[in-house]
Specification:
The chain is α/β, with parallel strands linked by helices. Helix content is about 40%, strand content about 15%. Strand 5, helix 7 and strand 6 form a beta-alpha-beta unit. The longest helix has 18 residues. The structure holds pyridoxal-5'-phosphate. Pyridoxal-5'-phosphate (PLP) binds next to helix 4.
Length: about 375
C-alpha cells in the first residue's frame, strides 16, 4: 500500500498535539444543546408525512434529480418553492442551492469581479471566506461587528470618482454562528445605501428565530436595502438546502455564472417537498414563541447562576460560554455529557486560540428544567 504523505501525517499529528483532532461522533440521545434544529422541525412527523404525501399526490416519484438544474434536474417543485420563498421573504426572486455552503461559495465566487473590493466581518463563516478565496476581487476583513473599523478600512482605499466602475461588497451575518451575536444591521444598511455599497447578509441562524421566522433582516424591515440575503434550510427549518434572495437580475446572473449551481446535481424533489412542508409549518407553529421563551429563560438563569461574565451577549438561539484552552473546554463538555447533556466544545483552530467555548444551541423543545439543570452543572464546573 502507498504511504500516506508525510506532510499530511504531520498536520494530523499537530492537531492531536493541541487536542483538536476532529472525529465523527454518531448522534446521541442526550439532552440536545448542540443541534441547529431550533424549532424541532427535523423530527416533525407532520412535516415528514406532509412532504411525502404531497410527492405521492403530484406523482413526483423521483429518488434523485437526474442532473444539474441547467440540464435535466429542474423539477417543477423548484419553481413552486422559489415562488414561496420570494413571497414569504419579500424578495424579488429566490434561487435555490444545494446547501448554505454551496450558496455562499456560489455567490461570493461569482459576484465580485476583478477590480472590485470585498469587506467581510472577521468572524464570517468558512463558506463565506472560501467563496471570497475563489473570487478575483480584493478582500479585506473588518473587526467583528465594528462599523467604525469598516469605514476606516474603506477610507484607506482612497476611491475617487474615477473609480466609479468599482463595486464594493460588504458581507456579514445577521446572527454569527459561533458567537450568536448580531451586527447593527440598521446602521450598516444605511451606511451601505448612502455610499452605494452592496450589502450581503447571511441569515442562516436568524431564519426561524427572528421576525416571526422570516429572519432578522425582515424583522428590521431593511430587505429592500440589501443586495443579497442568504437563507438556509438545514437549521431552524430542519430540512436541507439554501437560497439566495435578491433581484431578478441577480438570479439571472447566478444561473449563468455561479459554478456551485451549474456544475452539480440538483437537490432531489423530496428535499424541495420537505422545504415546502417546513415553511407551511413555520407559518403557524407555536414553536417560535416557545423558543423565544426558552431564550429569555436561559438568560435569566445565567444571571441567577452568576454565569453572565462567561457568556457572549446574545439574543439569538446561540449562546457561547468562553472557556479558554482546548483541554479545559473539552473537559467540561465531557463532564456535562456524563450528566446526560450534549453541549459541544468548539476548539481552536475553529475559533481563535483563547476563545475556545461551549456553544449552547437552544431549542423550542428544551424544557426549563433542562436549562436549569445544564446551567446548575456548568456553574459547578467552571472555576469562579
Ligand atoms: C452562517 C452560516 N452560513 C452558512 C452555513 C452553511 O449552511 P449549510 O449547513 O446549509 O451548508 C452555515 C452552517 O454552518 C452557517 O453557520
Amino acid at each position: 500500500m502507498k504511504q500516506f504523505p508525510k506532510k499530511l501525517q504531520d498536520k494530523l499529528n499537530q492537531r492531536a498535539t493541541i487536542n483538536a483532532l476532529r472525529k465523527l461522533d454518531t448522534q446521541s440521545n442526550l439532552v440536545d444543546f448542540t443541534s441547529n434544529d431550533y424549532l424541532g422541525f427535523s423530527k416533525s412527523k407532520h412535516i415528514f408525512n406532509q412532504a411525502h404525501q404531497s410527492l405521492i399526490n403530484t406523482n413526483a416519484i423521483n429518488n434523485g434529480a437526474t442532473g444539474s438544474r441547467l440540464l435535466s434536474g429542474n423539477h417543477p417543485l423548484y419553481g413552486t418553492t422559489e415562488r414561496l420563498l420570494s413571497e414569504f421573504h419579500d424578495s424579488e426572486s429566490a434561487l435555490l442551492f444545494n446547501s448554505g455552503y454551496d450558496a455562499n461559495l456560489g455567490l461570493l465566487a461569482a459576484i465580485p469581479q476583478k477590480g472590485d473590493y470585498i469587506f467581510y466581518d472577521a468572524y464570517s463563516h468558512a463558506s463565506i471566506r472560501d467563496g471570497i478565496l475563489l473570487s478575483h476581487a480584493k478582500a479585506y476583513k473588518f473587526e467583528h461587528n465594528n462599523l467604525d473599523d469598516l469605514q476606516q478600512k474603506i477610507k484607506r482605499l482612497n476611491l475617487t470618482n474615477s473609480n466609479l466602475d468599482t463595486a464594493i461588497y460588504i458581507v456579514t451575518e445577521s446572527v454569527f454562528s459561533m458567537d450568536g451575536d448580531s451586527p447593527n444591521l440598521i446602521k450598516l444598511s444605511h451606511f451601505c445605501a448612502k455610499n452605494n455599497y452592496h450589502l450581503l447578509v447571511d441569515e442562516a441562524h436568524a431564519i426561524g428565530v427572528f421576525g416571526n421566522g422570516k429572519g432578522l433582516v425582515q424583522e428590521l424591515n431593511i430587505q429592500d436595502q440589501l443586495f443579497a440575503r442568504l437563507i438556509t434550510f438545514g437549521k431552524a427549518l430542519g430540512a436541507h438546502g439554501a437560497a439566495v434572495l435578491g433581484s431578478k437580475l441577480l438570479k439571472q446572473y447566478l444561473i449563468n455564472f455561479s459554478r456551485p449551481l451549474i456544475y452539480t446535481t440538483a437537490l432531489p424533489p423530496h428535499s424541495l417537498s420537505t422545504i415546502n412542508s417546513a415553511y407551511k409549518e413555520l407559518k403557524q407553529t407555536s414553536a417560535l414563541k416557545t423558543l423565544q421563551n426558552n431564550i429569555e429563560f436561559f438568560k435569566l438563569e445565567l444571571k441567577k447562576h452568576q454565569l453572565n461574565s462567561y457568556f457572549i451577549e446574545s439574543n439569538s438561539a446561540i449562546h457561547s460560554c468562553l472557556i479558554p484552552g482546548n483541554n479545559a473546554v473539552k473537559a467540561i463538555a465531557q463532564k456535562l455529557k456524563s450528566k446526560g447533556i450534549d453541549v459541544k466544545a468548539i476548539l481552536a483552530p475553529t475559533v481563535p486560540r483563547g476563545q475556545e467555548r461551549l456553544r449552547f444551541c437552544l431549542h423550542s423543545y428544551n424544557s426549563e428544567a433542562e436549562i436549569t439543570k445544564v446551567l446548575t452543572w456548568l456553574a459547578t464546573f467552571v472555576e469562579k
